[in-house]
Amino acid sequence: MSVREIPMYIDGQPVQSQSQEWRDVVNPATQEVVARVPFCTADEVERAISSSKEAFKEWRKVPLGKRMRIMLKLQALIRDNTAELAALITEEHGKTLPDAEGEVGRGLEVVEHACSITSLQLGELAENAANEVDVYTMHQPLGVGAGITAFNFPIMLPCFMFPLAIATGNTFVLKPSEQDPSSTMRLVELAHEAGVPAGVLNVVHGGPDVANQIADHQDIKALSFIGSTHVGSLLYNRAAAAGKRMQAMMGAKNHCVVMPDANRSQAINNLLGSAFGAAGQRCMANSVVVLVGEAREWLSDIVDAARAMKVGPGTQLDADLGPLVSPAARDRVLRLIDAGEKEGAKLMVDGRNVQVEGYPNGNFVGPTLFADVTADMTIYREEIFGPVLCVVSVETLDDAIAFINANPNGNGTSIFTNSGWVARRFETDIEVGQIGINVPIPVPVAYFSFTGSRASKLGDLGPNGKQAIAFWTQTKTVTARWFEPENVSSGINSTISLG
Questions:
Q1: Do 205 and 126 reside in the same domain of the chain?
Q2: Which of 123, 276, 303, 448 has a CA between 20 and 30 Å from the CA of residue 131?
Q3: Does the pLDDT of residue 1 top 70, yes or no?
Q4: What's the distance, Cα to Cα, between the start and end of the chain in Å?
Q5: How distant, in Å, are the alpha carbons of 40, 52, 99, 250 from that of 253?
Q6: Is 277 helix (H, G, I), strand (E, B) or coil?
């Protein structure tokens, strides 16, 4: 099998990097090297930014209708190439093919939303706000935008960024994860096939040096980041110091509350799918289950269902979860499982020694479940980002709400119940930005904004929906009066009144 050399994408063309530093991209189920990705030089990053800056001069003038038609073409191309994109995701990330196809679908939602740009970017008008004075707003593009994405959703996360950014008239520099870049690069190729002009969407690769150069660069006006809390916090401070707009979607510790009146089979199947799907490598995974009152009696059923889940390569269609993305990720998860045992959590399901026939070198960890977890334990305090579920038991809904609100993170939470009153009480009192009611992963549809909160988010505006339009545009307010040709001024008005 030939090893792909991942190019940059600058001025509408794939460009081979001259960097001396390259990293292997590895199939996590086999450890086979499938691609090599460069860590671009500072000059190459500068070239990409300069290209986007130059392209902005003309792109900002392109009519809304033409931008809309490009987005319409892009969504059609993504839909037609879903299988290819999913296969690339599975090869480099490891998630199952059905999960990868689902990811492409969630990214496609954002592109479809961007097809409405002719109405999304409308301003407001007040006629005769004062005597013969009209006031109106315009939502204009900022300039060059940039995005830095994590490995866990190599299609969905770029779609959270560049489609709305360029649809609103900005140009864009994207730095995808170096761990699984091939599907992202194919997405960028489809964008250019759809009609995105040269320079409007450029791609560079690299690690901290490239990310810092993007955060510091004066020609980049806004930066969107999705990844770890540590990196996101550093980049947010750098970007703010450089005077640019910044949004950072970061780490999480999400909770799923199960009430005794919930539909038992639905709740168990959904919470386990959320916890263990994609091997737990989702910032919206429900990694903590809070069993309320008599629901604690369901623990044995949850354990049995977790043990029955199937681990395998992402290409195995009956597998429930695939491998972790890298040996380093697997080692970290194993260390945290060890810590859970040492700190007194009750290990009910142990996925450390799972064996997958035919794949002895895969980064596999099976579903792992701890009971009797307390808030001071490492497995609760840290985001594990692996297939590890912590089970907490409390007496009442009030206890569950207080427990969740005491956690510093606020990305997402969910509750399973058949009581409308309980659900309404939960959504009112919980201090988390995204809530699911009988929905385990409450990532909203793309025409609503992603609204993680507290320590999971930095910046006022999140991706998608109306917030994304506000993030990628600047509002100008015009106050205008037009005099009749023969109109004669009645004298100097030295007050603030519009008259």
A1: yes
A2: 123
A3: no
A4: 76
A5: 33, 37, 21, 11
A6: helix
Q: Which residues are catalytic?
A: 283
Distance of alpha carbon 387 from alpha carbon 365, whole angstroms: 7
Average pLDDT (185-210) is 98
Does the pLDDT at position 33 exceed 80? yes
Confidence of residue 248 (pLDDT cuts 50, 70, 90): very high
Output the DSSP codes for 138-193: EEEE-SEEEEE--TT-TTHHHHTTHHHHHHTT-EEEEE--TTS-HHHHHHHHHHHH
**pTM for the complete prediction?**
0.96
Q: What is the dihedral of CA 331, 231, 29, 361, to 10 degrees?
A: -30
Residue 294's φ and ψ, nearest 5 degrees, are -65, -15
Domain annotation covers residue 381: yes
Number of domains observed in the structure of the chain: 2
Q: What residues form DSSP beta bridges with 31?
A: none
Residue 449 lies in a domain: no
Question: CA torsion, points 330, 334, 335, 336, in degrees to nearest 10?
Answer: 100
The reply to whether 30 falls in a domain is yes
> What phi-psi label fits residue 200: left (phi over 0), alpha (psi between -120 and 50 degrees) or beta?
alpha
**DSSP run (H or E) holding 38:** strand 33-38
* Residue 443 near residue 450 (C-beta atoms within 8 A): yes
Yes or no: say if 140 and 90 are a contact pair by the CB < 8 Å rule.
no
Report the chain's mean pLDDT, rounded to a whole number. 97
Strand order in the sheet with 133-141: 125-130, 133-141, 473-481
Radius of gyration of the chain measured on its C-alpha atoms: 25
- Alpha carbons 279 and 364: distance in angstroms, whole number: 9
Overall residue count recorded for the chain in this entry: 499
Please report the DSSP string for 52-72 in residue order. HHHHHHHHTTS-HHHHHHHHH
Do 178 and 220 lie in one domain? The reply is yes
> Does an H or E element contain 4, and which?
strand 4-5
User: In degrees to the nearest 10, what's the CA dihedral of 300, 302, 308, 312?
Assistant: -140
Range of the domain at 56: 4-250+464-478
pLDDT digits (tens, 9 = 90+) for 375-409: 999 999 999 999 999 999 999 999 999 999 999 99
Return d(Cα 84, Cα 185) in angstroms, integer. 12
Written as six digits, the tokens of 42 are 């500072």
CA dihedral of residues 274, 277, 279, 284 (deg, nearest 10): -40
- Is residue 183 located within the same domain as residue 294? no
CATH code for position 167: 3.40.605.10
